[in-house]
Design brief:
The chain is of the alpha+beta class. The protein has ten helices and 15 strands. Strands 6, 7, 8, 9, 10, 11, 12, 13 and 14 form a nine-stranded antiparallel β-sheet that branches. A two-stranded antiparallel sheet has the order 1-2. It has three domains: about 1-55, no CATH class; about 75-110; about 120-335, no CATH class.
Length: about 350
């Protein structure tokens, strides 16, 4: 290609030299394809004008790149990359914002199922039970700090024949998403952490009707120092029993203890067990919330001089004596007016 030179002289520049002058430094030599299909590196000599390859075999194709480096690029080429980058930044920010909104609002939309036909209620704890004497048993400060409950009942009932029944109930009236749920402290986790051992026993779940309400309890037998105790525990959320089990820590309670084991707390064992993740999946499928007004129940009887079957009879009979249904909305309103912050929907 010919370009005007000084005076009457004309200077000749090949297309390759135009391309080379327009490309960034360091990107030369170029790989070109000859007419015969073979590839070769083309690097013209500065003082030779036109190379032999050009005369014999190279196919020269003038293109838009054959522009002198000093020639400014069109405005469209100068601002197009910046416009593309700006658009990418905006789209990325919008996508991130949508993801945050989805994560924030999806649980409120999804975990909202309940059974209106079943009604909504709390289970009110009774301390005056005919034929039984109640003794209050305070909860340690450490346990209170872990539970962060708004209402606690902990005690023991004793019968004249020596039968003893231990009871525990914890309630949360407000929804505080930054706190650990009451169900993170089941006996499968907490009792084994303080030295109790889980004894294999069947069944490991018990369905107990309490004043027409079908409650599902986890059933366990724990042993410590020659003492055996039959225990039930269950829960309500939003004024209704959970439709699935609270056995998310059962696998860690069943682990084989070893003096050389590094997993003293059972955390790694829980994470490796499929039951823990299956419990989360059941919560998702049932669309029942775990956050909100909660009530956790635990009742146990020492198996001293009685069999496990007799212990089941004692607990089933005593549950209807100890717990009475209470109006869910009224109790919730009364308690929430006394508590700072925290709100939850009232059916």
């Amino acid at each position: 290609m010919f370009w005007p030179g000084r005076g009457n002289m004309l200077s000749f520049r090949t297309p390759f030299e135009c391309v080379r002058s327009a490309l960034p430094e360091g990107s030369w030599p170029l790989r070109a394809r000859a007419k015969n299909g073979e590839e070769a590196l083309h690097e013209p000599s500065p003082g030779s004008g036109v190379s032999a390859e050009r005369r014999n075999s190279w196919e020269q194709r003038p293109a838009a790149l054959c522009r002198d480096a000093a020639t400014p690029r069109p405005v469209s080429e100068m601002f197009l990359p910046k416009a593309i980058k700006a658009k990418a930044v905006v789209l990325s920010a919008a996508g991130f914002s949508m993801s945050v909104l989805l994560v924030w609002f999806f649980p409120k939309f999804w975990f909202a199922r309940s059974d209106p036909a079943q009604g909504y209620f709390w289970l009110s704890e009774q301390t005056n039970v005919a034929g039984w004497r109640y003794t209050h048993q305070p909860v340690s400060r450490t346990a209170e700090a872990f539970l962060v409950a708004d209402h606690l009942v902990s005690g023991e009932f004793t019968k004249e024949d020596g039968t003893r029944v231990r009871v525990f109930s914890a309630k949360r009236y407000s929804s505080r998403e930054n706190e650990i749920g009451l169900f993170s402290h089941t006996p499968d986790r907490c009792w084994t952490a303080v030295g109790w051992k889980l004894e294999p026993a069947a069944p490991d779940v018990a369905e107990v009707p309490v004043h027409g309400i079908h409650l599902r309890f986890e059933r366990r037998i724990f042993t410590a120092g020659g003492q055996r105790e039959l225990l039930y525990f269950g829960a309500l959320v939003g004024g209704q029993p959970l439709p699935y089990r609270l056995d998310q820590f059962l696998s860690s309670a069943q682990r084989v203890e070893s003096p050389a084991s590094a997993d003293k707390t059972g955390t790694l064992t829980r994470l490796r067990q499929g039951r823990m993740w299956g419990w989360i999946w059941e919560s998702f499928v049932n669309r029942r919330p775990l956050i909100g007004p909660q009530q956790y129940l635990r009742i146990s009887v020492p198996l001293k001089g009685i069999t496990a079957d007799r212990g089941d009879e004692v607990l089933r009979d005593f549950l209807s004596r100890w717990l009475l249904p209470a109006d869910y909305s009224r109790e919730l309103r009364q308690q929430q007016t006394r508590l700072p912050g925290g709100t939850s929907a009232i059916p």
